[in-house]
Fold each of these.
Amino acid sequence: MGNDQAEAARQFIESIPHCRALGIRVDDIGAGVAELSMPYDPKLIGDPKSGVIHGGAVSALMDTCGGAAVISHPAGAAGTATLDLRIDYMRAATPGQRISARAECYHVTRSVAFVRATALDEDRDKPVATATGAFTVDRTREGGA
Amino acid sequence: MSRPAPEPVQTIKQRRDAALSALVQGVPYIRFLGIAFERRGDELTALLPFDDALIGNPELPALHGGVTAAFLEVTAIIGLSWAMIWDDLESGALDPLSLTPDTLPRLPKTIDFTVDYLRAGLPRDAYARARVNRSGRRYASVHVEGWQDKRARLFAQATGHFLMPQRDG
């Protein structure tokens, strides 16, 4: 993925309405690997007693990150949609900290892309969550993440 | 022969609606997505009214896969919590008038959640119902079905495992 292509992918992902609502930013993208992050925001709290972000918001970040990895893969998917996504929650994300996700599209067939992803906060050694997913490989331009 | 008079229907409704409201209103993320819950007896249906901010694919357009996952996960957690407090609520052990987000039992924690995307989420309202398949002292397994127009035509389903909050006694 060239610089222009990566820039186009970044703009495309950051313009998705729900990604804007979550404040998702593309930190790095190319060759089937994407790194996205999301700021801590009190409106995303899932446990009011601890202030921990809801798992659903982490899922949305991981899903977007997985889709971004698929469209950046050299196999050249024009668009993608999630077929299935499994998320394992290792620990609560620390309140107040930015959550970042890294997804790798590790295998692509004619129609399916396989993805692994990890979510972290400022503690880079202990993952907040990991995910595995299968995504469609759309050959005609439909967009999507 | 005398038996206690049945509870007035309004008392029952007030108690159940107050408890459900305390459960749902306490979570900012549920408000962020705009999710509401409708109740018939102990059966809950989650409602996700369509909003442009829920779009993940502007060209189709379609709901964001992350929104679908989050909607089903919220439905599972509230459904599980509701089943968890129901008996105490009905027996009087839990006083609904004293229930605030601060005094409610802790919510279950998601261990894992697997979403099966069956078709694109259309730009319109979505609904979901959770079924608690197993609820033990420590772990629970919950299945959720999501649909839009036809109840039998699911657009997504999910299964999750949850760690139950430790309760007194």
Amino acid sequence: MPSALPDGDAVPADGSLPAAALDGPGGRPFGFYVHVPFCATRCGYCDFNTYTAAELGGPAGDHRVSRETYPGLAAAEVRFARGVLGPAARPVQTVFFGGGTPTLLPPGRLGDLLRVIDGEFGLAAGAEVTVEANPETITPAGLAELRAQGITRISFGMQSAQPHVLAVLDRVHQPGRPAQCARWARAAGFEHVSLDLIYGTPGESDEDWRRSLEAALAAGPDHISAYALIVEDGTRLAARVRRGELPAPDDDAMADRYLIADEVLSRAGLRWYEVSNWAADPDSRCAHNLLYWTGADWWGVGPGAHSHVGGTRWWNVKHPAAYAGRIAAGVSPGYARETLTPAEQQLERIMLLTRLATGCPVTELDPAGRDAAAKAVADGLADPGALAGGRVVLTQRGRLLADAVIRDLTA
Amino acid sequence: MSDVDPGHTDPAVIRNFCIIAHIDHGKSTLADRMLQLTGVVENRNMRAQYLDRMDIERERGITIKSQAVRLPWTGQDGQPYVLNLIDTPGHVDFSYEVSRSLAACEGAVLLVDAAQGIEAQTLANLYMALEADLQIIPVLNKIDLPAAQPERYAEELAGIIGCDPGDVLRVSAKTGQGVEELLHEIVAQVPAPSGDPEAPARALIFDSVYDTYRGVVTYVRVIDGRLSKRERSLMMSTGAIHETLEVGVISPEPSPSAALGVGEVGYLITGVKDVRQARVGDTVTSAAHPATKALAGYSNPRPMVFSGLYPVDGDDYPDLRDALDKLRLNDAALVYEPETSAALGFGFRCGFLGLLHMEIVRERLEREFDLSLISTAPNVVYRVVMESGVELRVTNPSDFPGGTGAPSATLPGNATNAEGKAVGGKIAHVYEPIVRATLIAPSDYIGTIMELCQSRRGSLIGMDYLSAERVEIRYTMPLAEIIFDFFDQLKSRTRGYASLDYEPEGEQEANLVKVDILLQGQPVDAFSQIVHADNAREYGLSMTAKLKELIPRQQFEVPIQAAVGSRVIARENIRAIRKDVLAKCYGGDITRKRKLLEKQKEGKRRMKTIGRVDVPQEAFVAALSTQPTTEKKR
């Protein structure tokens, strides 16, 4: 079950933004997130806004959404975005096809969308275009076609190399498959290949985790994301944990796994640049995700997608049919939005920048926050050298306690 | 003007009575029927528990403050009579008020549930009524219930008061059955008041209520002479003189009259703003022609149970002070003084008549003044005699001499505390208040009850069978043991069948120690407790275990210790937290994450920091709730 959207203010039908949001976009980069809300099956741990064919089934109504009709709807929202942004529109630095399972759409349809974005906004030179892929939907020929359509970066949901761990997560791919896909992607000409891993799944041991990391590295990615498993309310996994069929993930074990990841990945030459992300070099970092973390602008296309432009955040209606209805009527698919106060914007900057290896400038902090930064250094949670240079950069232990440090910095 | 008008009523037609009953035995319902039958409340204006004014009273089915209603009634002889129903509080905490209400009557209706029989508190109040020489009219209520056993309980009542089972009236306050006969019996059996109409005025204050518009309304029973609106009144215990603004009777709304004569019951308004200036038990007389001798039985209320009250939000401290000041206007028994806790901040140490009184005050503060409060575990008053001969009265465990981290542990023998009393040196003797507890239960539970009382340091005084199946057991027990979840234990072990009453019985010396709780080596004053030496370890173990569950893990290890003096008697450890980070924070997570952060910041503001340890308010509330409960959980 997808999780609920936050509440907020109403979004006007024409999607128009407060003048301040469109004011002087200046040097703020701009990107597109395109949500593809389909999956072949739903995994037991997942609370993303995605649907299987069966979940979208039922009698075909006016706004029944399918893999065939969806690309046209998404293209319509891109054109709508162009109208809303008007003179604030600017070349697109990054495009990210996420989901769901974007690779359930034929590569040509993703390419079509990319061309609509290029047509309306213009793709910046060297733009990063990422697609998320599920290993079981990928073939060498498909990868070549994605590359040919203009996709520059691919990210595979590997999760684990251990069959018993994949089984708990309901992942259906063969354990060796993602690494195989990564090698195929390299062969197909993808310079940037990322693998997603999950640690702390019930039943996973430290050794299982180490093996998964080694297997991922053996495939030669230039980027790895490693996430602690979150048991989200409303998922099948949460129900199984609640019934006692599976043990709840243990925070201390999670901490151990994080340390293992940092150790194994660093040894292989990948460096952390965000709490859960490691990259081979600065160019290998995910430019699109960096938009999120640095307060840049992006437009999220598709049901449930979130956007941010100049201090206004909004999120689209969640269900594909509701989304289709809005798009068909030519009105904004926005469900609700919030206009951030300067204080809220500052809070977000501290919250997001502190998670990055580049850290949070102390100029963002108030006097109490600066005291907290000094205390974080004294407690071994922030790097003394970086603070001397005017930035709060978390140590390894500090990354594990990042939320606590952020609470102190913003208290 | 007829001869039953206030101020002109012949004492011969007056009947002053009260109803003695246990909670839930139907006293308020019976009063409702009497109001209807005598016509003072019309049927269409009737509401349940008419006389219970406070929401809390209606919800809990208890009477906290007493009231008096004047009921006109035509006797079987066709003559007009005036019945004054004096409502009495039904709880042990208010037994002094009960005794003053009884002193205002000549008769008492002993009302007992025909399905349950007499309960300990009813018995205690009955004994008080017998001591006050009241005419007792035994009545079984709820005879309409299928579970009623009137024969059996009539027998029991007859045995207790020494009458014939046939003399026990049977009514259903719910349906009204038998209530008319009861009113006739009151006329027939309750003696008319006697007093000297020519003597200087003497009226007994049996209740005093603060009214926002009128100031203090004092309820009185005239013993001798007349209370007249034209004469200023004198309170004999204080010597204070006040204008008499109004006298009158309640029937059932206040109705002014020129005067109140011998035997009459009514109210008096003098413009005072604080019930302390018109105390229950005091004698009112005329300032111009004062009586020389006050009525007997006056005493000051004495707080038996103390607890610290702290606002959850420190900013609410002035509001709490204002609220206590207002409550005090209507509660002569409530005492409080400011205190500061290192753990809880600014608050008040409050003294109460008992646990129910404490809960009512707390509930009123929260409900009527919209305050959110933390209350420390209740404690009794200890008398501590030092070897130096200095004597201390301890109402707060953290003031108990000696202890971990307390200055006196390290100070020389001539050290003094804030009040200049010597607290250094060694304790010679500690005295604690004891009570005489009366328990009534089916005889099957004798063993269970004795076991419980024994485990609470009780010593058996005696035991009597009220009937073949029901027994009255009497114990001497430390009050401290009773306020520490005794009542809940009693109820659960006897499946709700046992009832309890207690009265102060002086003090005893005991081997008591203060157990301190330390977080990271810092004593937390709010958690200190005085317990018997034999129970110190048990208390320490349970408190440290509880806190381990309640206090969230911190960035460092937190040892929790329980100590008596410098001796650690229990220890737990909260391991350092190692992971506190959200794994994923992408575009769609930012709003949710920011809102969570704002909420956590708010939560952190409400944390109390002890040393470096952040303790959430909820942990204090949960740790301090040592189940100090009363009859509300029945």
